[in-house]
What does this fold into?
Amino acid sequence: MHPRETLLPRPQQLFEGAPLEGVGGVESHLEDNSARGDDAANGDALRHLDRVRYYELRNSLVLDPVSVRNLELLAPIFLEESTRSPGPTTLIAALDVTVTGMGARLLRSWLLRPLLDPEAIEARLAAVTHLVQQTVVRGEIRKELKGILDLERLTGRITLGL
It folds into this structure.
C-alpha cells in the first residue's frame, strides 16, 4: 500500500472540496524530511500521523504575518530599540505571566487568533476579571499549575516513542 493511501484514505469525505494540493505538499515535505532522520530506515518517522483532519477557524480572526509583525504581538519590529527599553516591548511579553508551557501556548494562540463572537469575548473577559479580582484563588491556581507537567509535549513524546 502506498503511504499516501494510509494518510489520506478518503480525501473527498474528509475535506469536502477543500484544496488537497496543500495537504499533499505538506505530506511530501514531511516524507522528504523524515528520510533524513534516524527513523527513516525502519519507516517509523511518520507513524504517528495516521489521518488528516479538516480544521476550520470560524470563530477566530486569522491574522496575517504582516499584521502580527506590525502589531508587535510576538516580536519587536526594531530589536535594537527593544534592548534599551526598560519594559516589555511586545504584547505577549506584557501579558504572559503563565506558569506552564501549555498556558503560554494557549495565550499565544489567543493572541494570534482573536475571538470574533461577542458572547465568547464577553465570557473570556468575565473569566479574566473574576481571576483578577480573586487574588487568593488566582494564587492557589497558579501554585497548583506549577506542579503540572507539560502534558501536550509529554503526549507527543510518548506518541513518537522518545
